[in-house]
């Protein structure tokens, strides 16, 4: 994804595959019409074969098998993991090992119909993940989150991009607040601690506005 200037706007417009938002909207009928020809049976076979290997590897916690179905320059983005970006197989493999130590019973499954992108090789897959937080969870700093023993059962959406039959870019979208509450990392919405945090935010907001 790159950025460019839309002639109809004085602000910087996002450009996706060479098109601005307005151009992309106008192109949708053509993109939908071309989808069967662009995808064909080859894409379907590739996605099935890849998904079978991916799910088996993830749920058996096999680092080598997971990294075998991603590109060498794999990019992984997960807002719920402190917003960190993981780039390349070595760092991705290290992340997998850390994640499975933190959630040794983690299990993924597809929870809804996948969606194909109108452009490129993107696929959106609704998923459900369950797991018990029993090991340290590392972020981008030396500090770690201590295990709480709490179990998570939550849904999200994975956005996949492929190159030559391998996963090249993965964005995982999940409700970070709900996940934190399930794991005992954030107070429940109706708890005293949550109400206290809301009051503290209101006290801090005027100072934050003055800073900007």
From TrEMBL:
| Superkingdom per UniProt | Bacteria
Which chain regions cross the lipid bilayer?
Answer: none
Tell me one GO biological process term: polyketide metabolic process
Q: PANTHER family this protein is in?
A: ESTER CYCLASE (PTHR38436:SF1), POLYKETIDE CYCLASE SNOAL-LIKE DOMAIN (PTHR38436)
Q: What is this protein called?
A: SnoaL-like domain-containing protein
* Source organism of this protein record: Mycobacterium kansasii ATCC 12478
């Amino acid at each position: 994804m790159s950025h460019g200037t839309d002639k109809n706007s004085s602000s910087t417009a996002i450009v996706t595959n060479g098109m601005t938002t307005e151009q992309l909207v106008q192109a949708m009928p053509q993109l939908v019409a071309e989808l069967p020809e662009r995808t064909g049976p080859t894409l379907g076979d590739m996605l099935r074969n890849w998904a079978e290997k991916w799910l088996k590897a993830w749920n058996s916690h096999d680092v080598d098998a997971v990294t075998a179905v991603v590109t060498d320059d794999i990019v992984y983005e997960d807002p719920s993991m402190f917003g960190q970006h993981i780039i390349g197989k070595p760092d991705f493999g290290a992340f997998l090992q850390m994640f499975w130590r933190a959630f040794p019973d983690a299990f993924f499954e597809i929870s809804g119909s996948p969606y194909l992108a109108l452009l490129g090789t993107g696929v959106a897959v609704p998923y459900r993940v369950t797991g018990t937080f029993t090991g340290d969870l590392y972020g981008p700093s030396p500090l770690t989150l201590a295990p709480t023993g709490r179990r998570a059962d939550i849904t999200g959406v994975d956005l996949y991009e492929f190159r030559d039959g391998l996963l090249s870019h993965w964005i995982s979208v999940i409700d970070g607040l709900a996940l934190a509450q399930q794991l005992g990392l954030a107070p429940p919405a109706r708890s005293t601690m949550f109400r206290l945090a809301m009051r503290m935010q209101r006290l801090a907001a005027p100072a934050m506005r003055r800073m900007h």
